[in-house]
């Protein structure tokens, strides 16, 4: 193992140290090629479900994002919630070798599991992804028309762009650490470019992004929204959260964040 791989493993958020405070079930799934994924099923007793997909260097129980609290809020509002670790993260097996490509396999397998094991109709399942998890969700939705709704939080448009420094004053100094770290840890890792496939996504997408995101600037969400609307006008929305950093919109205002997302989800259900 080289220095880059060793450091990347060190930056991964290790074992799960926080668990849901409400009833949940330990679940497991198999993704290709024979990768075991671990997760939690938080039941609400309904026929609708939200699948939460974390980002790179994160896991399902990442306290810095507040995903457990988000899942509990979803259950309180009548949505079953599924949280799981992508390959090479948390308690799941496999290695982290791509930024969205192989992770899209994981998202699709989990989506299929909810349909087959829990008997929930595809149109009642929402993919809610953060950063790389959002990119993987858009990637799989571009190839799977059964996916009907996506919440995309802090997604990049084109991966290579987040590896570039920005020279506009304060942005340069605030992004320097992020870019150098990403370049070193990720190297030439194969990555998906959602902006190239979002036109093929039939699902409705709510793009959420923090205005103060210095890891993936707001312009990425704006570009994704523009392309999605060009090909599927009127189906998508964009929500800009003031003062929020990368994947920090939920922490910035958890109740409003959840309310806005559920309003978008329920709009689709009302139209069905």
Percent range for helical residues?
Answer: 25-40%
| Overall body shape | globular
And the CATH topology?
Rossmann fold
CATH class group: Alpha Beta
Distance between the termini: 51 Å
Read across the widest sheet, the strand sequence of neighbours is 1-2-4-3-5-6-7-8
Q: What do we call the CATH homologous superfamily?
A: Alpha/Beta hydrolase fold, catalytic domain
**How many separate helices?**
9
Strand content: 15-25%
Largest sheet, strands/sense/barrel: 8 strands, mixed
Based on the structure given, which CATH architecture is correct? 3-Layer(aba) Sandwich
Integer average pLDDT: 88
What's the alpha carbon Rg, rounded to whole Å? 17 Å
* Low confidence ranges: 169-177
The total strand number stands at 8
Helix-strand pattern, N to C?
A: HEEEHEHEHEHHEHEHH
Number of domains: 1
Structural class by SSE content:
alpha/beta
């Amino acid at each position: 193992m080289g220095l880059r791989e060793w450091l990347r493993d060190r930056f991964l958020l290790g074992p799960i140290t926080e668990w849901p405070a409400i009833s949940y079930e330990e679940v497991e799934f198999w993704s290709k090629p024979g990768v075991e994924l671990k997760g939690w099923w938080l039941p609400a007793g309904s026929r609708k479900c939200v699948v939460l997909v974390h980002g790179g260097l994160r896991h399902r129980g990442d306290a810095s994002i507040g995903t457990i609290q988000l899942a509990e809020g979803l259950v309180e509002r009548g949505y079953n919630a599924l949280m799981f670790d992508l390959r090479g993260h948390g308690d799941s097996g496999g290695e982290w070798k791509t930024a969205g490509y192989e992770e899209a396999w994981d998202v699709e397998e989990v989506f299929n599991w909810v349909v087959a094991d829990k008997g929930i109709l595809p149109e009642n399942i929402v993919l809610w992804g953060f950063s790389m998890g959002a990119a993987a969700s858009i990637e799989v939705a571009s190839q799977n028309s059964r996916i009907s709704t996506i919440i995309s939080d802090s997604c990049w448009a084109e991966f290579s762009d987040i590896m570039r420094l920005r020279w506009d004053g304060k942005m340069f100094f605030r992004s320097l650490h992020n870019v150098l770290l990403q370049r070193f840890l990720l190297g030439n890792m194969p990555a998906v470019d959602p902006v190239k496939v979002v036109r093929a996504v039939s699902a409705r997408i709510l793009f959420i992004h923090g205005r103060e995101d210095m890891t993936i600037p707001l312009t990425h969400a704006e570009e994704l929204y523009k392309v999605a609307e060009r090909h599927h006008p009127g189906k998508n929305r964009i929500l800009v959260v003031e003062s929020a950093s990368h994947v920090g919109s939920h922490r910035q205002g958890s109740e409003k964040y959840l309310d806005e997302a559920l309003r978008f989800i329920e709009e689709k259900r009302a139209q069905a």
